[in-house]
């Protein structure tokens, strides 16, 4: 919205700053951060009052989790609210990729909200049916995949770009949309599975989104793409403004989610943020890089898949409990120890993913 202030500029005054993505990204970050600090505690008070017993705790979960009974959930509303406000205020609203990532984020937030509401109102950990959640998720992701393809350059439409191999494109044709659906839905659910300890999911999400934001900015500038020898996707640079809002909102949420958490993110936040990561990857043609940058989420999701398949086949468990962060809890690791070590892993993987821009 504020981008239109550039119409008041003569090219050498304060209003000219609004032309720059980096300036508006800084504004989006600060707006989302302040939003989180201002509305965080009032939102927690409302959630605590309306939810009563808070998020239900799994009976078969680690024993240490029972002390968290009564903690309200749906804290993702704070992140989503900060992100939406900052993006609408600072991003160019004529950019289709901005609306693409907002559409995916808000749609998955709505699914997550319905799931959280069902859990809290019924005091049951099951929530909305998994089939319904997946069905709606794939529908949203299918729309987003087709949407992204329409705004990709002609030479990149319906194609998969590979990291490191600069000239390699795999023409997926009509399979691109189903592929994009798997990326977005897989990302959303992987982040959802990671959200099991205080502060565990939000920091890796911020790290991964910041990395993807840098990539989006790079592939959206023709001079950067020529230097780095990566594919140019016009318009994706504006996604950096969205990412800045996400990081600012995430920090505002982490202020209240730091151990011991005053509020949980809930599916409202985890599905929304995971979907956002997948949408950014599809928009920027860096779907494979997402698997590297978000490697922590991939491992968390794989641990659940392996556990379920192996148990069905043998009746035995590979891990003491899945997702894998619960396995380490069962082994006696302290919660802050797990969280911080997983943050370190997320940062390392992000640097590896970022390096693919240069390694060609």
TrEMBL record:
Mg(2+) binds at residues 192, 267. Its main location: membrane. InterPro entries: Glycosyl_transferase_4 (IPR000715), PNAcMuramoyl-5peptid_Trfase (IPR003524), PNAcMuramoyl-5peptid_Trfase_CS (IPR018480). Catalyzes the initial step of the lipid cycle reactions in the biosynthesis of the cell wall peptidoglycan: transfers peptidoglycan precursor phospho-MurNAc-pentapeptide from UDP-MurNAc-pentapeptide onto the lipid carrier undecaprenyl phosphate, yielding undecaprenyl-pyrophosphoryl-MurNAc-pentapeptide, known as lipid I. Belongs to the glycosyltransferase 4 family. MraY subfamily. Its cofactor is Mg(2+). Its EC number is 2.7.8.13. It is a multi-pass membrane protein. This is Phospho-N-acetylmuramoyl-pentapeptide-transferase. It catalyses: UDP-N-acetyl-alpha-D-muramoyl-L-alanyl-gamma-D-glutamyl-meso-2,6-diaminopimeloyl-D-alanyl-D-alanine + di-trans,octa-cis-undecaprenyl phosphate = di-trans,octa-cis-undecaprenyl diphospho-N-acetyl-alpha-D-muramoyl-L-alanyl-D-glutamyl-meso-2,6-diaminopimeloyl-D-alanyl-D-alanine + UMP. Keywords: Cell cycle, Cell division, Cell membrane, Cell shape, Cell wall biogenesis/degradation, Magnesium, Membrane, Metal-binding, Peptidoglycan synthesis, Transferase, Transmembrane, Transmembrane helix. One of its GO terms (molecular function) is metal ion binding. Coiled coil: none annotated. NCBIfam families: mraY. It comes from Thalassovita taeanensis. GO terms for cellular component: plasma membrane. Pathway: Cell wall biogenesis; peptidoglycan biosynthesis. GO terms for biological process: cell division; cell wall organization; peptidoglycan biosynthetic process; regulation of cell shape. The chain crosses the membrane at residues 20-44, 65-91, 97-118, 130-149, 169-188, 200-219, 239-256, 263-282, 288-311, 338-357. It is found in: Cell membrane; Membrane.
């Amino acid at each position: 919205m504020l981008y239109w202030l550039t119409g008041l500029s003569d090219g050498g005054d304060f209003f000219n700053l609004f032309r720059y993505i980096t300036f508006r990204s800084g504004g989006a970050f600060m707006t989302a951060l302040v939003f989180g600090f201002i509305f965080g505690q009032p939102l927690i008070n409302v959630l605590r009052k309306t939810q009563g017993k808070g998020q239900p705790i799994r009976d078969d979960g680690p024993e240490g989790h029972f002390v968290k009974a009564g903690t309200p959930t749906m804290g993702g509303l704070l992140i989503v609210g900060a992100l939406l406000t900052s993006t609408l205020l600072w991003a160019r609203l004529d950019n289709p990729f901005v609306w693409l990532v907002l559409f995916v984020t808000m749609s998955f937030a709505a699914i997550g909200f319905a799931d959280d509401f069902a859990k809290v109102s019924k005091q049951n950990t099951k929530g909305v049916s998994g089939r319904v959640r997946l069905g709606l998720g794939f529908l949203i992701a299918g729309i987003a995949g087709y949407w992204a393809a329409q705004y990709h350059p002609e030479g990149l439409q319906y194609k998969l770009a590979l990291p490191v191999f600069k000239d390699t494109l795999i023409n997926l044709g009509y399979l691109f949309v189903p592929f994009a659906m798997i990326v977005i839905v897989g990302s959303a659910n992987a982040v959802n599975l990671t959200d099991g300890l205080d502060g565990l999911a939000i920091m890796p999400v911020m790290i991964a989104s910041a990395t993807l934001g840098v990539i989006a900015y790079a592939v959206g500038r023709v001079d950067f793409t020529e230097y780095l020898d990566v594919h140019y996707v016009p318009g994706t640079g504006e996604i950096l403004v969205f990412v800045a809002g996400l990081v600012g909102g995430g920090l505002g949420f982490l202020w209240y989610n730091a151990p011991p958490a005053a509020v949980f993110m809930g599916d409202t936040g985890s599905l929304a943020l995971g979907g956002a990561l997948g949408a950014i990857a599809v928009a920027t043609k860096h779907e494979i890089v997402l698997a590297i940058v978000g490697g922590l989420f991939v491992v968390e999701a794989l641990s659940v898949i392996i556990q379920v398949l192996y148990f069905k086949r043998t009746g035995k468990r590979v891990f003491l409990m899945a997702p894998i962060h619960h396995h380490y809890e069962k082994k006696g690791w302290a919660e802050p120890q797990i969280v911080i070590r997983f943050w370190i892993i997320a940062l390392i993987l992000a640097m590896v993913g970022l390096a693919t821009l240069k390694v060609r």
